[in-house]
Amino acid sequence: MSLGYKNVRIGVRLFAVMMIATLGAGAAALAQAPASAQKSAPGQATTTKKAPATAARSYDRALLKPSLLKDKAPEHYKVKFVTTRGEFTLAVTRAWAPLGADRFYTLVKHHFYDNASVFRVVPSFVAQFGISAYPPVTAAWRGTDIKDDPVTQSNKKGYITFATSGPNTRTTQVFINLQDNARLDKMGFAPFGVVEGDGMRVVIMFYDQYGDDAGPDQPKIEKQGKPYLDKGWPKLDTIKSATLLTSAPAAASKPAAPTKKP
How far, in Å, CA of 38 to CA of 26, rounded? Predict the structure, then answer.
């Protein structure tokens, strides 16, 4: 009887020790979570309490519901780009390509292009970007195609245009012409804005030595986000931010596939 009681007491003690060890491991795991979040977001707050909140706000949550984002752009607006090569400003004229201008306005307004890589730069041709750094955002915008606009402007050096994977497949990817590419006009690529002033001095410096065929895989960018690019193509330039400089409230317009190329 005493032996049984002794065994019970030993069992209780062992259980208590195991519980303490389990709780301790769980606490350690929780304590490490903010540290890993800080590591993936260098330059942000280092306090353990703020790190998760910062990570949670890495993109505008409104981007996860494209169907609710139907802004009509002002007739004229400007977008300031801050990149790893410097800054430049785009001037957009809605009349050139209304649907494209509206879509671009909406994306910039909600900071879609922030932290995105200029993943395709072909010398003397185009600099292309527009796949979100965040896979959930990319997934949300898949299939949100807008119809093609009539081509009213030529694809001259410095003009920005939506990339496509066929007729009426414009979504989020755009490219800036690095030279006059008039041949793209007949292919249906409708410019909606142009780089202002000497801003092209920044654009032409985007890293272009990976080559078009040896560059990153677009579907993998969409699925894995910026870490995929940072690991395999670390020299690619990044759009730190794209911000509206001029804007005005306007009415709604209509709502924009992998491997899009001009």
Answer: 20
Confidence bin at 261 (pLDDT 50/70/90): low
In whole angstroms, give the CA distance from residue 201 to residue 88.
9
How much is the pLDDT for 13? 41
Q: How far apart are the first and last CA of the chain?
A: 86
d(CA 223, CA 105): 25
CA distance 227 to 133: 8
Three state DSSP letters for 71-104: ECCCCEEEEEEEECCEEEEEEEEHHHCHHHHHHH
Domain 68-244, CATH: 2.40.100.10
Query: Which among 253, 247, 259, 226 is positioned nearest to 115, based on CA atoms?
Result: 226
- Which residue from 97, 110, 197 is spatially nearest to 147, judged by alpha carbons? 97
The yes-or-no verdict on residue 12 having pLDDT over 50 is: no
pLDDT (mean) for 212-236: 95
Question: Domains of the chain: which residue ranges?
Answer: 1-35, 68-244
Nearest to 112 by CA among 132, 92, 128, 83: 132
Residues 6+ apart with CB under 8 A from 195: 88, 89, 90, 158, 159, 160, 176, 203
Structure tokens at 116: 């995105």
Q: Tell me the mean pLDDT in the region 146-166.
A: 97
Structure confidence by residue, pLDDT tens digits, 34-46: 222 222 223 323 3
Question: What is the distance between the alpha carbons of residues 175 and 163, in angstroms, rounded to a whole number?
Answer: 6
For tokens 């303490």, what's the residue?
Answer: 20
Q: What is d(CA 100, CA 130) in angstroms, rounded to the nearest whole number? A: 13
Give the residue among 85, 71, 67, 42 at the shortest CA–CA distance from 199.
Answer: 85
C-alpha distances out from residue 6 to 10, 11, 14, 15, 16, Å: 6, 9, 12, 14, 15
